[in-house]
């Protein structure tokens, strides 16, 4: 892959985040970047301004070593079809799509090798996390080269695990943010101004993330905040009796079900 172009197909929520991460870190030099997008996006314009190519003639795809598929699972076949005749046989397909299997992606891309990743949008800040699975060693190396600079990689033993990995990583920032929003609304219901409550809750989210990044076990981090017999413990007990574990399990279960459906 070294020295070959990288094609990004789709520059929406996740595609833009990936592009921003690459531009920020230099993981993919802009002169090697080809972005395919039906409409200009701030990230694609940033790539263009840095020397990347946006929607060039398709014959330029011939030198690509990797094609990152960042379109919706419902349209990937239609999006790829016009590109396939222009791609080298050894171009690796790098799918970040939820649900779509390696076998289906390979079959729909002329039998090319495929690696699947499930990143979070914090790849934009080069602080994402991404599950990775493939059965092809070269494709794995390509996936690592593209994503290790912008995400912590978690390599899975089994492709089926990607459904659960999607729930606990790709989707989970939104789950956590929804909880923090609910906390802020609960604070406002108890007399804080909504503005103050939102600022406090966002700060708490940032604080939780900063301490989590130390790598210490989550139980230890929780214990450090929860003084015995204190205020946090009272709140944690209320969360447990309110079924917080069941709520998390329901979110994961629903996301897994949907991931299986859309594949
Ligand atoms: N948003 C997220 O946090 C995550 C998304 N994903 C996956 O990433 C993929 C994209 O999701 P989002 O970015 O959320 O969707 P999105 O709808 O924001 O982006 C999809 C983009 O594809 C573009 N597109 C449509 N037809 C195209 C074509 N023929 N060629 C090139 N681009 C085309 C659209 O203009 C759009 O900007 C999905 O498969 C999803 O499962 C995976 C992990 C996280
Ligand atoms: O909501 C979705 O379908 C995508 C996949 C994981 C996160 N966002």
From TrEMBL:
<dbReference type="InterPro" id="IPR000304">
    <property type="entry name" value="Pyrroline-COOH_reductase"/>
</dbReference>
<feature type="domain" description="Pyrroline-5-carboxylate reductase dimerisation">
    <location>
        <begin position="159"/>
        <end position="261"/>
    </location>
</feature>
<dbReference type="InterPro" id="IPR028939">
    <property type="entry name" value="P5C_Rdtase_cat_N"/>
</dbReference>
<dbReference type="InterPro" id="IPR029036">
    <property type="entry name" value="P5CR_dimer"/>
</dbReference>
<keyword id="KW-0963">Cytoplasm</keyword>
<dbReference type="Pfam" id="PF03807">
    <property type="entry name" value="F420_oxidored"/>
</dbReference>
<protein>
    <recommendedName>
        <fullName>Pyrroline-5-carboxylate reductase</fullName>
        <ecNumber>1.5.1.2</ecNumber>
    </recommendedName>
</protein>
<keyword id="KW-0641">Proline biosynthesis</keyword>
<dbReference type="InterPro" id="IPR036291">
    <property type="entry name" value="NAD(P)-bd_dom_sf"/>
</dbReference>
<keyword id="KW-0560">Oxidoreductase</keyword>
<comment type="pathway">
    <text>Amino-acid biosynthesis; L-proline biosynthesis; L-proline from L-glutamate 5-semialdehyde: step 1/1.</text>
</comment>
<comment type="function">
    <text>Catalyzes the reduction of 1-pyrroline-5-carboxylate (PCA) to L-proline.</text>
</comment>
<keyword id="KW-0028">Amino-acid biosynthesis</keyword>
<comment type="similarity">
    <text>Belongs to the pyrroline-5-carboxylate reductase family.</text>
</comment>
<feature type="domain" description="Pyrroline-5-carboxylate reductase catalytic N-terminal">
    <location>
        <begin position="6"/>
        <end position="99"/>
    </location>
</feature>
<dbReference type="InterPro" id="IPR008927">
    <property type="entry name" value="6-PGluconate_DH-like_C_sf"/>
</dbReference>
<keyword id="KW-0521">NADP</keyword>
<dbReference type="Pfam" id="PF14748">
    <property type="entry name" value="P5CR_dimer"/>
</dbReference>
């Amino acid at each position: 892959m070294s020295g070959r172009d990288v094609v990004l197909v789709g520059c929406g929520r996740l595609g833009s985040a990936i592009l921003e991460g690459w531009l920020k870190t230099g993981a993919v030099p802009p002169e090697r970047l080809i972005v395919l997008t039906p409409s200009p996006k701030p990230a694609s314009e940033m790539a263009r301004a840095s020397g990347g190519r946006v929607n060039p003639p398709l014959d330029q795809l011939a030198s690509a070593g990797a094609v990152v598929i960042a379109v919706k699972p419902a349209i990937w076949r239609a999006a790829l079809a016009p590109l396939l005749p222009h791609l080298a046989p050894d171009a690796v397909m790098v799918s970040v799509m939820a649900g779509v299997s390696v076998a289906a992606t390979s079959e729909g891309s002329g039998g090319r090798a495929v690696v699947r990743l499930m990143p979070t949008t914090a790849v934009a800040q080069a602080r994402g996390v991404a599950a990775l699975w493939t059965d092809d060693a070269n494709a794995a190396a390509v996936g690592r080269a593209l994503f290790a600079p912008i995400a912590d990689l978690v390599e899975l033993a089994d492709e089926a695990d990607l459904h659960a990995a999607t729930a606990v990583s790709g989707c989970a920032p939104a789950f956590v943010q929804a909880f923090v929003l609910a906390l802020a609304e609960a604070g406002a219901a108890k007399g804080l101004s909504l503005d103050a409550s939102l600022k406090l809750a966002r700060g708490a989210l940032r604080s939780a993330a900063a301490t989590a990044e130390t790598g210490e076990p989550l139980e230890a981090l929780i214990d450090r905040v929860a003084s015995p017999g204190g205020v946090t413990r009272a709140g944690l007990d209320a969360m447990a009796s309110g079924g917080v574990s069941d709520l998390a399990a329901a979110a994961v279960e629903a996301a897994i079900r949907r991931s299986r459906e859309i594949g």
